[in-house]
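pasting for ref
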Amino acid sequence: MLITVLCILIGIPLGFIFRNNKHVVSNVNRLTMWAIYVLLFMLGVTTGSNKTIVSELGTIGVQAACISVFCVLGSACAVFLLDKLFLKGKLDER
């Protein structure tokens, strides 16, 4: 955890210094994307090698789908209630 915080604290001033250098920013963005790809690949390898997760993949998928659907429905209901109770229908005006 300390290493993570130190990396962020060192990266902030470096980003501030090099923010106008398009070559550095472009390379950092490309490096960041490749690092994310590698992390996702390693996550897939780790998940695929875990026998418990692979055997329960169907159950996990159904649970993830249910959670996603209820999150979207809950968000839609919250926006509806916010509009009707607090904004008095002002979201309809465009």
